[in-house]
Fold these 2 entries.
Entry 1:
Amino acid sequence: MELRPDKYLKYLGLPALFGVERTKKILSVNPTIPPQREEAGEVKIMAYDYNAVELKEYYFDRIEDCFYLKESNNTTWINIDGLRKADVEAISAHYEIHNLVVEDILSINQRPKMDEINTILFCLLNTLYYNDEKKTVEQEQVSIVLGNGFVISFQEDAQRDVFNPLRGRLKLNNVKLRQNGADYLCYSLLDLIVDNYFIVMEGLGENIEQLEEEVIRHSNKRSLAKINQLRKELIVLKRNMTPVRDLINGILRSESELLQDRNTKYFKDIYDHIVQANELTENYRDILMNIQDLYISNLNLKMNEVMKVMAIVTCLLAPPTVIVGIFGMNFNNIPLAHTASGFYLTVFITLMIPAVMLWIFKRRGWF
């Protein structure tokens, strides 16, 4: 009969304990493989056409319905939740967006970046969300196209949207967002994404604090699994956040006519935030390394305690073993072996020597 260990290993719960599937998902990033993006089942198309005194809000069922907004003299923001290849290609062709940008929008697991192609400034980065139930960091690719008087944003998920606070501000009068152009709108979108990183880090930070307290009080094998899981989530966090610093830096170095000099200070503010976020990620990583070292130290301490108890027990049993072994030998001429008091004297010495040894060990603080 052929033995199949893998048939029974699944019942041990090791993949679930150490997150093997999560590791595979994190490492399965290969930009050379053509993306196999599934068509979105639901698409939401929202548009805002505004200036300092007027705001118009639109909801469209078809992508072609928003094409007329290109002729508007106001600032236009078109947001598409849910990606379909036909929709992306249609609006890109209407707004003269390069095919390379279209490929990046439809890509999967793309590295955050910034490109300037023709009269378009393109930003691609990931919005991060923290899943409290699974204790994982989830990502959503967001593409932002800045053109002359318009901004088009593409989001993968139509169910959750990090830009909702921005929509609320647009409806207020006398706000900077309404008084500035499309570049300030682009700044506002990027700023919301970067600010959301701190919310995700707060969720991870709380778990790290709980894990540290757990390791200090009563660590076990599951503590090591939690450390391993949090380190993986930090990898996801760092992979998505670190390139954003180069993205913002590219905007600051850009000489594009789409960016006004008076708004440069706002992009510098985003740069400061993303630098701070990366530093916090490094701090979290160092804390997790310290927690792992603490876990190993506790494990070694427990092992040392066990070895110390075993050593003491061995030392206490050694003299009685010698005494009993001597009096148990097959010789006739053993002192006190055939007397009435010999047995009681042997028992007394057997118990007295370990008691004296125990007193000496206690006095020296060995336990």
Entry 2:
Amino acid sequence: MTLEASPARAITPRRLKVAAVAAIAVAVVVVAYGIASRAADESRLKQWTDAQAIPSVTVIQPTAGDADESIVLPGRLEAYYRAPIYARVSGYLKSWSTDIGARVKAGQVLGLIETPDLDQQLEQGKADLASARANQALAETTARRWQAMLKSDSVSQQAVDEKTGDLAAKQAIANAAAANVERLQALEGFKRIVAPFDGVVTSRDTDVGALIDAGGGRGPQLFTVSDIHQLRVYVRVPQDDAPAIHPGMTAELSVPGHAGSTYIAKVDSSAGAVNAESGTLLVELSLDDSSGALMPGDFANVRFAVPAAAGLVRVPASALIFRTAGLQVATVDADSHARLHTITIRHDLGRWVEVASGISPGDRIIDSPPDALSDGDEVHAMPAASNAPAATAAAQQGAGNGPD
């Protein structure tokens, strides 16, 4: 059987038109898909870029300050009584019997002054007294005789009155001479330089043969005697802390050179006025030093335990922002936006600071905020590990630091 080939199907214009439409539809679909895919990629890229532009920050909770805090201030120890001893008579130092560091009793002789001029004045005063008393005795005898003669009208009343007045004048001269002798004898007693009270000789500024001028507080002292069984401690307290210091409260002292030893002092009084130049209040404390371990002039660290101010919170020093607006910290609000707060620092504890105003314990603090962070910026908050133990350690360490 012979097969006969069929003739080729003719391509008509209609078929060409359908093919063209189909090709255009495919092209449109491809283009639409590409555009949609690119738009989706751009949207995802924008979202990713925006997400990357939002800084991630570490958020911590501030910790409340301690109920009590310590104020550590420098102080200076002084003798409870300190008497610079000056000469009351002029002359030359004949001898001294006590040197620096010697413990003396009240009335004990520290030195002797040789006073040749005063000795001669005393001799002259005694001679003047003897002459005055002799004239007084003669005037008394004469007055008695004239009074006897007045009874027989041998002399006038006027003459008797003159003799009686002369006796009174002679008596006054004798009394003046006696007072002068007593004054010179009292000055003779100042030839002996004595200790005014029990204490220690803390200075000797003279030597045998030195010319001594009657000082009266104007010239250099010969000796200084200090009573050190008790010591005074003087501390200048900043104005902010002054209201917390009152008489009767105690303070703990540590003195360099006495490692491991602490001493308890009691506040006796204060100046009652803030020094305008330093902005501090001078406070005086007393310290029992019967053992003699401490010395006047020693430097001491004085620690006062005072109630902490209300509202104090602690934040790490790394959370602080230093800008022209002042010292600030950044917080994160409920809408994840940064808020800048100007704060006031009460105590600088090193790694931590105590903030007196500007934030509260419930705020979420940004630790190590970005340099470019501005108020209102959106942030991505990430919680940090609990900072309570670190804060407690910082409090224990910072308890030994003074106010900022």
